[in-house]
Amino acid sequence: MAKGKLRSIAVMTGGGDCPGLNAVIRAVAKTAINKYGLDVWGIQDGYLGLIEDRMELLSYDDVSNILTRGGTILGTSNIANPFRFSVKVGNKPQSKDVSSNCVKALKARGVDALICIGGDGTMASAAKFAKKGLVVMGVPKTIDNDLYGTDVTFGFNTAVTTATEAIDKIHTTASSHHRVMIVEVMGRYTGWIALYSGVASGADVILIPEIPYRLRKVCEYAVGRSRRGRRFSIVVVSEGALEKHGRMVVKRRISSSPDPIRLGGIGNKLAADINKETGLECRAVTLGHVQRGGTPSPYDRALATSFGHAAVELLAEGVKNRLVVLKGGEISSIALSRVAGKIKKVPRNHRLIKAGLAIGTSFGT
Ligand code: F6P
Fold first, then answer.
1. Rounded to whole angstroms, how far apart are CA atoms 114 and 139?
2. Which of 46, 77, 95 is nearest to 255 (CA)?
3. Ligand 1 binding pocket includes 78 (Cβ within 6 Å)
4. What pLDDT band is residue 4 in, cutting at 50, 70 and 90?
5. 203 and which of 3, 54, 236, 265 could share a cystine (Cβ 3.0–4.6 Å)?
6. Which of 48, 160, 188, 239, when mutated, tests ligand 1's pocket best, judged by the most ligand atoms within 8 Å of its CB?
7. How far is the CA of 16 from the centre of ligand 1 (A)?
8. How far apart are CA 87 and CA 99, in angstroms?
9. Domain positions in the chain
10. Could you read off the pLDDT of 240-272 as tens digits, one per residue?
11. Are 139 and 33 in contact (CB under 8 A)?
């Protein structure tokens, strides 16, 4: 789209909810309305609402007083893929490409560009829409911090804060009862939340998918602490962590979802395994969706505002089909086509792993 031709945009939030979504919606809509006088359509429930043609014009008032609110005023969905939408033919579910209907629905309202706020699943579809000729702009969301191309996603900082506060509280029961307390955090196939919250809370053991653990090492570490008079241990485990030569623990499969696998259960498995091997009393706590809830941290509010503002500025400049990112402390963007199908894992030489090892934290190796 040529510079200056932008009149109307649509905005949607896709995938799991995340603290800071409303802050992005607010920044997008206020920049678009205030600075450029654009129409802003809010699509309801992510790609599901786009498929079902559910969208409303947003006013300045609609996006006021939402900066601190968790969740998303637009609603979201992580089970709708416009390129493989599950429909029933007779009694049988079948996948259908309904993306052309989505493009038509946007064109019918005169929408010039679509801002997709989401994680890797949302960006994969956004990249496909770009190939179909739609002008799109991505904004990187997820508590997991696993989106390729950006140093950080909004929502991650809040999730780490929530997890750290919870782990801090677990310390009292661990030390009073001389237990091994295992805290399972989210993160899907990456260990960003576990690594940051584990280091921040002074966890004794941090287990992440990028470093498959040896049960023997974890047990030796906990027993060693007990023998030295430190009669409790805190283990922070990412939901995607796995034993060396083992498998991730899958909680459920959701066939209609772009990523059907839902992880969960490694905390309980670990508690049973450590208890069996050592006789130490163990308890597992799964933090779950608590990590996605609540008001965004100040850092996430500011980051989300920068991302939302940048998305509109780029579109106004005629830039298209990119993901807004934070790189080296600066906001920039990368082509959506470079993001699709990739995830950002914790590098083995990450500074927090080095620091953790140096201060005696076990990574189960
Ligand atoms: O991607 C965010 C996330 O919370 C992951 O950490 C977790 O694995 C997944 O979503 C849970 O998804 P659902 O809300 O569908 O259970």
1. 11
2. 95
3. yes
4. low
5. 236
6. 188
7. 6
8. 13
9. 8-154+296-339, 159-292
10. 999 999 999 999 998 878 788 999 999 999 999
11. no
CATH code: domain 8-154+296-339 is 3.40.50.450
Q: What's the full length of the chain, in residues?
A: 365
pLDDT digits (tens, 9 = 90+) for 54-112: 999 999 999 999 999 999 999 999 889 999 998 888 888 889 999 999 999 999 999 99
Sheet containing strand 282-286, strands side by side: 205-207, 233-238, 180-185, 282-286
Q: How far apart are CA 284 and CA 272, in angstroms?
A: 9
DSSP 296: P
Q: Which residues make Cβ contacts (< 8 Å) with residue 108, sequence separation at least 6?
A: none
Q: Give distance in angstroms: CA of 63 to centre of ligand 1.
A: 26
DSSP-assigned letters across all residues of 122-180: HHHHHHHHHHTT--EEEEEB-TT--BTT-S--BTHHHHHHHHHHHHHHHHHHHHHHT-E
- SS3 assignment, position 305: helix
144 catalytic residue (yes or no): yes
Can you tell me the distance from the alpha carbon of 208 to that of 352, in angstroms, rounded to the nearest whole number?
12
Angle CA 250–253–255, to nearest 5: 155
Task: List 43's β-bridge partners, or say none.
Answer: 55
Return all residues near 134 (Cβ < 8 A) that are at least 6 apart. Answer: 103, 106, 113, 114
Q: State the Cα–Cα distance between residues 326 and 107, nearest whole angstrom.
A: 31
Is any atom of ligand 1 closer than 6 Å to the C-beta of 186? yes
291 Cα–ligand 1 center, Å: 10
Kindly give the number of the ligand 1 atom that is closest to the alpha carbon of 252: 16
CATH superfamily of 159-292: Phosphofructokinase domain (3.40.50.460)
Out of 45, 120, 144, 204, pick the active-site residue: 144
Q: Is 141 in the pocket of ligand 1 (CB under 6 A)?
A: no
